Amino acid sequence: MIRAGVVLLTTNGLAAIERVRDGMTYYTLPGGGVEDGETPQEAAVRETHEELGLIVRVDGLVALVNFRGSTQYYYRAEVLGGQFGTGTGEELSSPATSKAGTYQPVWLDERQLAVRDVRPASIAQALAAAPDPDRLVKEWFSTPLVVDEV
Length: 150
Description:
Blueprint: E1 2-7, E2 9-10, E3 13-21, E4 24-28, E5 31-33, H1 40-52, E6 54-67, E7 70-82, E8 102-108, E9 118-119, H2 121-129, H3 133-139, E10 145-149
Helix pairs in contact: 2-3
Organism: Kribbella koreensis
Family: Belongs to the Nudix hydrolase family.
Domain Nudix hydrolase: 1-143
């Protein structure tokens, strides 16, 4: 399975999806599966709109994560329009009691990245350790972060 998502840093923090499932709370970067006939970049833009309600432009691969047999592409994103929190993706309308749990768009302050369960962990840990996370993401343009997570 191929998944595509975004690393969206603004003055509000890092855009994430708060997931509550099976009694656990964790955070994922916005994104989802790449559909037939779609590039990973197109999927990242579509998923960001569905999950966050934002129209974004992706301008570079910043991380490639291999996780449990799937390849995940993460792109740096810039907001062009839309309103945060107005996503209409199917997962956002699922009831709190569904097996999928809940999905809630949130902004995570950079200080929260080291203490919250943010996935992929490798991206969150790198951003948390960086003195200037935005600069780090820009550096990943020339050499994307490549990791294997378990």
